[in-house]
Amino acid sequence: MPQLCAMKVAIFSARPYDRAFFDAANASHRYDLVYLDTHLNKTTAALAAEFPVVCAFANDTLDATTLAILAEGGTYLVALRCAGYNNVDLQAAQSHNIRVVHVPAYSPFAIAEHAVALLLTLNRKTHRAYNRVRDGNFSLDGLLGFDIHGLTVGIIGTGKIGIKFARIMRGFGCEIIACDPIKHPDSDEIGIRYVEPDELYALSDIISLHCPLTPYTHHLINTHAVQQMKCGVTLINTSRGAVIDTHAVIVGLKSGHIGSLGLDVYEEEADLFFQDLSNDIIKDDVFARLLLFPNVVITSHQAFFTRNALQNIAETTLENINDIRMTGSCKNMVRV
Ligand code: NAD
After folding, report:
1. Average pLDDT of 127-131?
2. Test site for ligand 1: of 102, 111, 304, 312, most ligand atoms within 8 A of the Cβ
3. Domain residues for 206?
4. How far is the CA of 209 from the centre of ligand 1 (A)?
5. In a domain, 281, yes or no
């Protein structure tokens, strides 16, 4: 048993805050946690040799090659410390007998509230007002917003996060419409009306994306979708970057069809987010173009980043590992 208790866990893409919350949660587990600040991918997977468990995050790449290297090194469990698992080739994991667990709900409030923060920032232009006032510029020109009360909000994906976002926006006095193949049990109580995507695009003043990234939702927001949207629509994405075709959205922003855009995720974010690149040249021209719009606010995948969420992530991840170790099964197992 002591040998099992000291089981080695390689934690990839680890930042100082991960270390703080995992060390605290590990007090009752006593795993041998080894923090690696590098992303997990086929080039770095060999670092996990002889680690039975690998802990990965949203921007790690667990493709077939990476998983083959992990399996060869003796890894039998990938413990994702995030909800989404679009970055894992589940078929390859299964073929190597590697189990995959995730943290399905660490704090849906954190992400829903961040979506609201992006919306309010864009509407009342607090990102611009903040800089102006610090610069002694007290002019209001260009800062005109609108009342959110009474507007129609379209939500794509009414799962754990989308339904929290719906409740908050209901509190603002908005009409809520949604697209989701599965109707949420609370939707009638909240007053959500489910519609087809084109109707949602045509009726919504504000659209917020809360669906997972799957082959069906990849570039869901494409040129066709943008063209169906109301002129001046506010679009918020806290789900996964590739749900949006960034080129199509840039065309919409340039023409004024999209009134403002709030992003917490970006399809090519893996080379950018979670690092300090302030002394470097940004090589991604598409991302650089987005930064030039005054009506675009981007945060670097921080919607999950609350104390409550980090604590839940660390505790649930270690409990997931424990469940697999003790019983071979876990309620948070991801299946093909
Ligand atoms: P969830 O599984 O509870 O809900 C997702 C909902 O989307 C489900 O109801 C599902 O039926 C629906 N859906 C699937 N395909 C759809 C489609 N084509 N059109 C409309 N709806 C569709 O997931 P959740 O916990 O609410 O998380 C949603 C997503 O948010 C995650 O998959 C993840 O990618 C993202 N996320 C982002 C952050 C962040 O920090 N930015 C943090 C956590 C999760």
Report:
1. 97
2. 111
3. 108-298
4. 8
5. yes
The string over 49-78, giving b where at least 16 C-beta atoms fall within 10 Å of a residue's C-beta and e elsewhere, is eebbbbbbbbbbbbeeebbbbbbebebbbb
Name the 3-class secondary structure at 2: helix
How far apart, in whole angstroms, are the C-alpha atoms of residue 37 and residue 14?
5
Residues 199 and 257 in one domain: yes
Question: Residue 5: pLDDT band by 50, 70, 90 thresholds?
Answer: low
321 lines ligand 1 (CB under 6 A): no
What kind and span of H or E run contains 296? strand 296-298
Contact 104, 160 (CB under 8 A): yes
Q: Token digits for 207?
A: 């659209």
Mark whether 128 and 165 lie in a shared domain.
yes
**Model pTM score:** 0.92
Which structure tokens are listed for 168?
């908050």
Average pLDDT over residues 316-322: 97
Domains: count for the chain? 2
* Angstrom distance (rounded) from CA 28 to CA 7: 14
Q: Which of 267, 269, 315, 319 is catalytic?
A: 269
pLDDT above 60 for 42: yes
Structure tokens at 249: 């959205």
Q: 135 Cβ partners below 8 Å, 6+ apart?
A: none
Q: CB of 217 closer than 6 A to ligand 1?
A: yes
Rounded Cα gap, residues 14 and 34, in angstroms? 9
